[in-house]
Amino acid sequence: MRQLSKLFMVLSVLSFAVPAFAQGGGSSAMWADIAAGFSMAFASGICALAQGRATAAAAEGLARNPAARPGIQLALILGLALIESLALYTLVIIFAKVK
Amino acid sequence: MLNLTADQMRAERFYAGALNRIRRFMIAIAPIAAAAVWWRLGTRSVAGFALGCTVAYISFYWLKRAIGGFVDRAAGETPSKSGSGIVLRFLLRYLLMAIGAYVILTVSPASLSGLLAGLFLPVAAIACEAIYEVFVALSRGV
Predict the structure, then answer these.
(1) Which of A75, A97, B34, B45 is the most exposed place for a label (fewest CB within 10 A)?
(2) A66 interaction partners in chain B (CB closer than 8 Å)
(3) Do B116 and A70 touch (CB under 8 A)?
């Protein structure tokens, strides 16, 4: 059942994609803009998910073992800073490649 | 009661100072990188880079404080800061970055690359800290 629902999801996405392909003759700049928007959206969404997971794991760890606070705090700060930088990498690539 | 050996205590002390070392690395890296940017890309880019470094430094400082407040609450300790203040600071970081980017885009779009490079200052500092920790672990066995 789960696989079937995944198949339907993929098919629905593909059916949305078909009219876009049918337009044809579009400039590459338009596709670059669309790709930039999608890549930034994906990067932001996945970074937000990762930050949420990291924070949840840190909160759980602290609740289980409050004595481990310094180590968890350091790991959380570094983790969040590095996860944020991933979205910045995407932004830099967009600015470098999409004029 | 934890019974730590002298080596373990030394290691605890060493790793507890990581955040302060990262802050110092940021302060040390910024002028060196700014000089390199000025030499390679010119004055406009170095202005953007300086703005990016400032925003990144303030953002990292606020991130540290926000997480300190969050950890206080998660560990069940009496919070020293208000919850709304923590959230506000966390969100203000993004506002600060957006304002920096807007200022650069309106004043001098040519220095945007400098601003983006400056925002990576904490990553460079964390990389330096990682290298330093590996060096200390290998040389002193901490």
Answers:
(1) A97
(2) 75-76
(3) no
Q: Is A99 on the interface with B (CB under 8 A)?
A: no
Neighbouring CB atoms inside 10 A of B53's CB total 27
Is B2 part of a structural domain of the chain? no
Q: Which of A73, A89, A99 should be substituted to probe chain B, the one whose Cβ sees the most B Cβ atoms within 10 Å?
A: A73
pLDDT in tens, B10-47: 888 888 889 999 999 999 999 999 999 999 888 888 98
**What is the residue extent of each domain of chain A?**
41-99
Whether B52 is covered by a domain: the verdict is yes
Find the angle CA(B119)-CA(B112)-CA(A34) to the nearest 5 degrees. 95
- For residue B41, being part of any structural domain is answered with yes
**Any alpha helices (H) in chain A, and if so which ranges?**
2-23, 28-64, 69-97
**Any domain includes B60:** yes
pLDDT of residue B50: 92
What is the spatial distance between Cα A69 and Cα B68, in angstroms, rounded to a whole number? 10
Q: Which candidate, A64, B133, A17, places its Cα nearest to that of A56?
A: A64
